[in-house]
Amino acid sequence: MISSIGHVIRLARAGWILAREGVFSGVETAGLPLEMRVPLFLAGLIARRGGGLQRIAPAIARLGPSYVKLGQTLATRPDVVGVAVARELEALQDRMAPFPREVAVGVIEKAFSRPIGEIFAEFSEPVAAASVAQVHRAKIVADGKERWVAVKVLRPRIERRFRRDLGDMFFAARLVQKYSAEARRLKPVEVVETLARSMKMEMDFRLEAAAASEYSDNTQGDADFLVPAVDWNLSAREVLTLQWIDGTPLSDVEALRRSGVDLPGLGRTIIQSFLRHAVRDGFFHADMHQGNLFLTREGRLAAVDFGIMGRLGVKERRFLAEILYGFITRDYQRVAEVHFEAGYVPPSYRVADFAQAIRAVGEPIHSRRADEISMAKLLSLLFEITALFDMQTRTELVMLQKTMVVVEGVARSLDPQLDMWSTAEPVVRSWIEENLGPLAKISDAGQGIASMAHLVSQAPAILSRGARISEQLESWTAEGLTLAQPTVEALARANAARNRFWRYGFAFLLLLLVVHIWR
């Protein structure tokens, strides 16, 4: 229970900083319950002049790397925070202050039990810094040959900070989810769980190395796409060493234009590469902003930073392909049917009604020029429709939708006239022909027969387990479920402790909050 006081105090500090920067000033309070309108009114009173939603990224940066990572995660969840907020949160990419080179050297020497001079011939100052790690350029000399590598080093003591802040975030998410029906639909606890899983993977660079390796294997046959090779001998839990990508970042459009690159062609490559990875492989880069994409001297699109990757199962890929193709061909009835087949829409609604709502999303795509279509507005409308039809949030699909908007934004920065849907059509149609055509159906039938044969062979064991479970249920029904005495005593002690906490701790908590706010 004492930990609850710590959670509240730290969350109160975070709320104070966000309110002081005016982040909540633009929130529309009409229709909100009283318990939400009052805090928002108080937040407006303490907001500094000149603040507003545009201050959300600097405010979160002040809260530290854990909140920066949360902000980056929420940037992929516009269904939770809204499209406008998600756009502002994208400014949090790679904006953290670096830590000293000497600290990074110490982390590397400890990881490999060797002096830095025996590992690298050269080791630079930091060239990029993010919330979890920073990157250095280094030279390796082996067998008389030199090669440059990118060395990613974990921030010292970052794991302890993340564990504490994640505890605060879980506390807040469970509280909101408990008292808000709309929050339960948006699954805030699941958002924090996604962040926690992401952080576990991002803070163990061996896992990121594995993601880069898998991504590289999947894209070996893609002549226009490059994933840097992993140096497994110089990678550990706290250190990741990758092939250095020597190219022009896509954030520098003027440099690309001066080099004579076919910018519209590069824009199409970005869109088609992303869709190919998502639909064909079911494994895609979920953070494809300009800073993570480069054009190499050979004219290949190269990606870096594999801490946030998305996965789609075979069924989700089929649904995705059919939904995209339905939008492209204006077959809204089929798009609606796929949503119901996938279980995305509750069966209490009618397919025809949902098809009508989907038409409201799709028709603006076909009635306007490509440069007039706002994917952000379409995404907002799509999320409004999901709420209207009580659709439960599917995290993997929201991440896909958000990444698609980011990827389209990168492509549009190169070619404002780019048509997302005509660009996507060849990739989606090819996948549908290969995986949903006659030969694919024959293959599916064969797999179904094999699965049925396996199920039949397992039938005796399944029936035996079912009989044992039935006997146990009958025993509990007749005799009741008995708890061991130590369990009963432990429950009693826990209940007594909880009562004492709330009896004596609440006044103390209020006192601490008042002191903190007026300090």
TrEMBL record:
InterPro entries from the xrefs?
A: ABC1_dom (IPR004147), Kinase-like_dom_sf (IPR011009), UbiB (IPR010232), UbiB_kinase (IPR050154)
UniProt-listed Pfam families: ABC1
What the entry lists under SUPFAM superfamilies is as follows: Protein kinase-like (PK-like)
Keywords for the protein's UniProt record, in alphabetical order? Cell inner membrane, Cell membrane, Membrane, Transmembrane, Transmembrane helix, Ubiquinone biosynthesis
Asked if the Swiss-Prot or TrEMBL record annotates the protein with the keyword Transmembrane helix, the reply is yes
Domain of life, per the record? Bacteria
Q: Which GO terms describe its biological process?
A: ubiquinone biosynthetic process
Reply yes or no: does the keyword Membrane apply: yes
Pathway field of the UniProt record reads: Cofactor biosynthesis; ubiquinone biosynthesis [regulation]
Residue ranges annotated as transmembrane are 501-518
Question: Ranges for the ABC1 atypical kinase-like domain?
Answer: 92-339
Q: Which family does it belong to?
A: Belongs to the protein kinase superfamily. ADCK protein kinase family.
Q: Note the PANTHER family from the entry.
A: CHAPERONE-ACTIVITY OF BC1 COMPLEX CABC1 -RELATED, PROTEIN ACTIVITY OF BC1 COMPLEX KINASE 7, CHLOROPLASTIC
What NCBIfam families does the database record attribute to this sequence? UbiB
- Name used for this protein in its record: 2-octaprenylphenol hydroxylase
